[in-house]
């Protein structure tokens, strides 16, 4: 089993060295930068293509990164760096898991499960942003309505309204307007990207009404007024749902922490139990089942916060 771990470690080191060597050959040692390493990783990981099942996964990662707004704090965190981060974390936890459990099957399972955690973290960050945006939504609509009534220009109303709201909505809207100003994209296409970033049903309605008006026209002021009235009615029910989600998250997190502590203690503090878990099929199935329960708990937390 140790031989398999050595092979995996060698593969990982060889991949990293390949990326570094190719990057240095392209730019020279003095001009070598992390940006070039990321570009090389882009070509190696998917060669810029987003087709089939792999393309769907890459698109989901891209949307999660944007929705989480993590690039505001970690500017280098794009798709390539996210995938590399997942690989590094998974391999490190795999080696650490093998040292604790002595079982290749269990440690592989731990490594694979750990690889999902960065994605779950992005989803939780995106959900937290969505909740903040829900609280800002009514105020944003009122401000947007005022600027639109003055100018009659949707893009101007978006741009000016961003100055009167807070993060993360401010960054999302400013980024959308900047993308429109600096590219050849139609504003409808920019709104499509904004809708992916802001995973809120009510804000999605506002974006859809805006796109319909840009294409077909109509009484946009009346539509905004109705959205404002609807947002006011929804505020009280949303506060109750948010409190329930927070309680569920705290309870499930506590159960997961206790479970992990007991799981690690079984290997490190009880030699007889550790022998059973490491050397028997039944013990390994118990370990895997325990980890599946932890994974289910993490999934439930992500689902609670996504809503």
Characterise this structure:
- It is a single chain.
- The protein is an all-alpha fold and 307 residues long.
- It folds into 3 domains: 1-45, no CATH class; 57-128 and 241-306, no CATH class; 130-238.
- It has 12 helices and no strands.
- The protein has helices at residues 2-27, 34-45, 52-68, 79-101, 104-151, 154-162, 169-182, 187-197, 201-216, 220-268, 271-279, 281-306.
- The longest helix has 49 residues, at 220-268.
- It starts with a helix and ends with a helix.
- The model has no long low-confidence stretch (mean pLDDT 77).
Explain the layout of strands and helices.
Layout: H1 2-27, H2 34-45, H3 52-68, H4 79-101, H5 104-151, H6 154-162, H7 169-182, H8 187-197, H9 201-216, H10 220-268, H11 271-279, H12 281-306
Helix pairs in contact: 1-2, 2-4, 3-5, 4-5, 5-6, 5-10, 5-12, 6-7, 7-8, 8-9, 9-10, 10-12, 11-12
Principal-axes geometry comes out as elongated
Q: Average pLDDT, to the nearest integer?
A: 77
Number of helices: 12
Total strands: the figure is: 0
**Percent of residues in helical segments?**
over 70%
The proportion of residues in beta strands is under 5%
Backbone structural class: mainly alpha
């Amino acid at each position: 089993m140790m031989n398999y771990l050595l092979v995996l470690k060698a593969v990982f080191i060889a991949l990293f060295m390949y990326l570094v060597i190719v990057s240095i050959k392209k730019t020279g040692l003095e001009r070598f930068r992390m940006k070039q390493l990321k570009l090389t990783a882009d070509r190696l990981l998917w060669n810029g293509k987003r087709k089939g099942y792999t393309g769907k996964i890459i698109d989901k990662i891209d949307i999660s990164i944007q929705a989480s707004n993590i690039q505001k704090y970690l500017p280098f965190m794009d798709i390539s760096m996210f995938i590399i981060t997942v690989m590094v974390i998974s391999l490190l936890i795999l080696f650490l898991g093998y040292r604790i459990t002595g079982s290749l099957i269990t440690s592989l399972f731990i490594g694979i499960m750990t690889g999902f955690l960065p994605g779950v973290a992005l989803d939780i960050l995106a959900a937290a942003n969505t909740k903040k945006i829900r609280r800002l939504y009514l105020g944003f609509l009122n401000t947007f309505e005022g600027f639109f009534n003055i100018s009659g220009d949707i893009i101007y109303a978006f741009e000016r309204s961003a100055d009167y709201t807070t993060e993360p909505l401010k960054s999302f809207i400013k980024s959308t307007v900047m993308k429109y100003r600096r590219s050849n994209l139609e504003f409808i296409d920019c709104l499509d990207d904004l809708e992916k970033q802001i995973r809120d049903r009510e804000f999605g309605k506002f974006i859809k009404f805006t796109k319909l008006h840009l294409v077909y026209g109509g009484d946009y002021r009346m539509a905004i007024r109705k959205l404002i009235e609807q947002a006011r009615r929804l505020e009280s029910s949303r506060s109750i749902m948010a409190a329930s989600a927070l309680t569920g998250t705290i309870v499930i997190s506590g159960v997961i922490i206790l479970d992990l502590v007991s799981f690690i203690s079984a290997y490190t503090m009880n030699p007889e139990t550790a022998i059973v878990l490491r050397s028997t099929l039944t013990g390994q199935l118990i370990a895997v089942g325990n980890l599946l329960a932890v994974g289910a708990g993490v999934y439930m937390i992500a689902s609670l916060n996504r809503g």
